[in-house]
What does this fold into?
Amino acid sequence: MVLFASLVTAKSTASVIQISNINDSFLLNSHSIEGLFNNSSPFFTTDDLASVHSILNNWGIDTDGKITLLPVNTGFGLSFLTLIDEEFGSGDNGTDGVLGLTSTAPSTLSMFINDSDQDDWSLIQPPFGSQTMGSTFVWGSAGSGDGFAWAGLSLGDAFSYSFVDLDGDGGAIGTEAFQFVSWTGNSWDVVSTNGFKTDGSSVFTGMVVPAPGAALVLTALVVGRRRRHH
It folds into this structure.
């Protein structure tokens, strides 16, 4: 019963996402951002998008010309945010930025997308299992951006992302396109960066895992239970 209660507690407080790509595997810790996603899915409002950029900028993280990815605790639970270029809050001012994304996640999750009436996107939702969002993001690179998020993640949930650079060299997104951001105890920090492959693609997967402390507790409980059975 104690082990079961611990598992339930770990599930309800899930806040760590393990990212794996072709080069690396690392952990991202979440932190709360107040007021995010007060509107109904699937609307990732421009005000919400600009607010996240402002917070990261205040922590010294440059989001201009980047694809910034981070876990955030929101009113919809643990969310994984994809921030495309930098948004100042005034909305799109052009269409010189183009990015393709396909992402698959559990069907239990909510989805939020910025500029839902402008981007060419679709959400495939089978009766059970997983759902897949496909989008061509279009935005103006001078002062505006785009964004996407899965929300309501729980322990054990897994997702995949596949990006395609539709701009090519010299486009709105820089060479070192991707930056993964984590809450490191008292600040938001970039913990990993990488770029598109030579074919213009980038793929990674993520999974919600127990926080290191919770993992140690669960391991100790399991070991103790096995010893009592011997």
User: Anything to note?
Assistant: The chain has one domain: 2-229. Residues 77 and 152 are 5 Å apart (CA to CA). Residues 2-229 form one domain. Helices lie at 2-12, 46-58, 212-229.
